[in-house]
Known about the structure:
Elements: H1 3-33, E1 37-55, E2 59-74, E3 80-84, E4 88-89, H2 93-104, E5 108-113, E6 116-122, H3 126-155
Antiparallel strand pairs: 1-2, 1-5, 2-3, 2-4, 5-6
Amino acid sequence: MYLLLIAGIIGILLGIVLIVTGIRQGVQRVEHEGTFLPAEAKAVDLERRARIITVHHVIPVGFVWEYRVWVKFSTPQGQNVESPLPYALGISPEVRAAKRSRRHGEPMEILYDPADPEACHYGSKTVFHIREVLYKFIAAGILIALGAWLVWWQYHI
């Protein structure tokens, strides 16, 4: 008899939990990225792979080329590091900077984790982390709205 009410409350609570965990994860990731140090790196290699674009993870509709840039840099402690950056599209700023670095010897500005220098990336990832939190907010909003609708429906049928 109170199945809609219980389902609605569960939906609302799940939405609230998703919002709280999204905020915590976002803050932790942004704070962790704040500990990364800048370094000038040289691009030493470019790997290319084709990634198939699909609709609903089933129907292939095309492909794009993704590149993984291998960089070489030194930490202030004198440790020489050679590590890959995450895969990126060919039109991304990091791939363009890597191509300039390989052709003209220009250094690329990267950020690396001092605790694990092989964990490095090009540019700030703060926008990416904020976008992850926004996706969680959208999902939470849908859960809360659905839960509220189920509670409302319980008392209006």
